[in-house]
Amino acid sequence: MDVLELTKKLISMPSVSKDSNADVNKVCEDILSAAGFEIERKEYKDEHGVLKANFVAKIGPGSGGLAFCSHSDTVPGQEEQWPAFDPEEKGDLLYGRGSCDMKGPLAATIIAATQIDSSKLKKPVYIVVTSDEEVGLTGAKFLSEESEMLRQNRPEQGIIAEPTSMIPVYSHKGFATVTVTAHGRAAHTSTGLGESATLKIAPFMADMAKFNEKMMSDEQFMNDAFIPPTNGFNMIITDYETPFNVSASKTTVGLCFRAMPDAGTEEILAHIQERADAYGLDVDVDLVDSLYCPPTADIVTAALELTNLPEAETVPYGTDGVFLKNVIKELVILGPGDIKVAHTIEEHVPLAELHQAVDVYTGLIEKLCM
């Protein structure tokens, strides 16, 4: 199989996140197994009882080495609007759901890893494939905790093969959500017996609005390496459909922001907690941290040399790397296709970038593992 043939095969096997990705993973595992890779399969059932498959494949001696990481689930195909799972070449583009996010990049990693002469490897090469990336990075978190192969061998370097138009990316933003809840007492407003949770939480919301102004102007909460350099702070509120003439017994404010390296993430969370405590509110925090690889790292230098580009970039979206960094020391994002067409009707990947990805991934193996 070449990269185009394999990409088409994977696209034609729907693996929307709500369904199982086991069949797609099996195709990948069989190809890698036939090429001499050792396979570690890790599976779980999601909250709906659907089987989700993840695996790590390894070839070559020792520990360390280079890992290529992808996910095999996709967003819904929207088949009523286009033939999402019938891959089609049009000119110099290949169309289909997952063509760039990320069955095309996944195919490129497999083709590159299986066409090398494994007898020349001095360090191992890994293929890492996860589930449920599109619905919370669940597979990557699970695999980073459960994979003996990754935890014992700890690859030195890795590629997250998300679409970057084949531009090396050394960092991306994370994502923090904070749920703040006030409790009151429901009663008809004519009785004067109620206690409005909404009024109780209102001063906290005013504090957050002022804090947002500070975050938009204070450089300690910015990182100029990103576009935009600010963290996209947002606030929403719900009183759980309380009628106008009833005091709300419970009101919840949701806060979120895009965590960046060296941009005051801990200070932001501490300030939110302090103001919530001042008003006697309940707080729940969920932080998915940012991803960062030093721009001078060997994996970045090698990727720039092989793509013939002067410098690596940053992106505002997130990847599996936020969890896989716990088992892979340095991660760079690099893959064929444009993130702007991912998840869209008429999703596509340039054929030239698919073939370039194979060449670049092969070159990385040769530079870092041979």
Order of helices and strands: HHEEEEEHEHHEEEHEEHEEHEHEEH
Largest sheet: spatial strand order: 1-2-6-3-7-15
Kindly report the CATH topology of the largest domain: Aminopeptidase
Total helices: the number is 10
**CATH homologous superfamily placement of the largest domain:** Zn peptidases
The parts where pLDDT drops under 50 for at least 5 residues are none
The largest sheet, given as strand count, sense and whether it forms a barrel, is: 6 strands, mixed
Which CATH top level class of the largest domain fits?
Alpha Beta
Percentage of residues assigned to helices: 25-40%
Percent of residues in β-strands: 15-25%
The span between the termini is: 24 Å
Rg, please? 23 Å
Structural class: alpha/beta
Shape: elongated
Q: How many domain regions?
A: 2
Q: Residue-averaged pLDDT, rounded?
A: 97
In total, how many beta strands? 16
The CATH architecture assignment of the largest domain turns out to be 3-Layer(aba) Sandwich
